[in-house]
Amino acid sequence: MTARLASTMDSMLGGRFGWNIVTSAEDLAARNFGLEKLPSRDARYAMADEYVDVVRQLFASWDEDAVVLDREKGIYADHTKVRPIHFKGEYFSVRGPLNTVPSPQHRPAFVQAGASPRGRVFAARNADSVIAIANGVTGMKQFRDDVRKHAEAAGRDPDDVKVLFCVTPTLGDTEKDAWDKYERTISSPQFIHDILAETSALTEIDFARFDLDEPLPYRLETNGEQGSLDQLQQWGSGKTLRELVMDAAGGLVSSLELIGTPDQVAERMGEAMEEVGGDGFMLTTPVLRLNRRWVGEITDGLVPALQRRGLTRTKYTPGQTLRQNLTEF
After folding, report:
1. Which of 31, 11, 308, 296 is nearest to 169 (CA)?
2. DSSP code for 82
3. H-helix segments, the chain
4. Exposure of 234 by Cβ count < 10 A (0-12 exposed, 13-18 middle, 19+ buried)?
5. Torsion angle of alpha carbons 148, 153, 159, 165, nearest 10°?
6. pLDDT for 300-315, tens place per residue?
7. β-pairing, 170-171 with 162-167?
8. How far is CA 326 from CA 25, 48, 111, 131, in A?
9. How many C-beta neighbours within 10 Å does residue 264 have?
10. DSSP three-state, residue 312
11. Does this model's pTM top 0.90?
């Protein structure tokens, strides 16, 4: 059903549909699917690997030229070019074929976000693009190199897996303006509350039970999003929980400190990619809250600064699909 929906959406959107093939969920989601508790991370990824195998075969069950639309003979599709898949694995059993026509991409673009070691293996095996969070340029390079290593081990061309690092730029007319805005944002009680609430939801750890002005009492582990937890806790730093939240400013989705004028931030982004080796960034906002001012600062300030340096495209090739746009650079 999900594969059919994805194919239909891709047809409706003219080849611009992407599928976020994530595997983490809360216990509540597990119970909604008849499970008493959330399976271990390794078990979830094993299920996810098999699931992706199933949907890949379903998307491939129609040849590109299967639809003939011969009205005179009353033939919609050539039945010899539409095949059952007869998939039987440890978790799924699917006869197939996909019960809808091929979409413009034939399969949607696969996007994955998962920073745990097993998540990286899954991404390298399956994803067209990986959305990642890392700690600075060194962490970004280590993450990308690791994904590329796993992609090669899985028999893929590492250049076919594009790693995009989440960043939250803070822009101002001057560097001081940007820093003032940054400090106001990360020190506000609402920001600290929202970050901890979001992290609690992602990691299944109730951070309300910890004192904001004391260090975390012990190293935390989770069956939820380990990457988000590691980004926050910085075990051994001695920082209080409040300081940890402020240090992870950007809503736990900023891999790099980008604070300044549009030209300063664009220059830093270019320098970072030179060191990391590619592939790009995903721009986001603190705790994922979007407003008109932020959009204007990015579109009227940062993007032109990047374009002047040749760091981002000035136009898209007409007719290209999402997957083609993701992988052409």
Report:
1. 296
2. B
3. 2-12, 27-32, 41-59, 117-126, 136-153, 175-187, 189-203, 226-233, 241-247, 262-276, 292-297, 303-308, 322-327
4. middle
5. -30
6. 999 999 999 999 999 9
7. unpaired
8. 26, 22, 10, 12
9. 18
10. coil
11. no
Indicate if the pLDDT at residue 29 is higher than 80: no
Residue type (1 letter), 73: K
Asked if pLDDT for residue 251 goes beyond 50, the answer is no
Please report where in the chains the tokens 């599928």 appear, as a residue: 19
For residue 33, what pLDDT is reported?
A: 67
Rounded to a whole number, what is the distance in angstroms from the first to the last CA of the chain? 33
Task: Characterize 23-43 residue by residue with b for buried, 16 or more Cβ atoms within 10 angstroms of its Cβ, and e for exposed.
Answer: bbbeeeeeeeeeeeebeebee
pLDDT over 80 (residue 296): yes
**Residue carrying the six token digits 């597990």:** 30
Q: Are 196 and 284 in contact (CB under 8 A)?
A: no
Interaxial angle between packed helices 136-153 and 262-276, expressed in degrees from 0 to 180 and rounded to the nearest 10 = 40
Stated length of the chain? 329
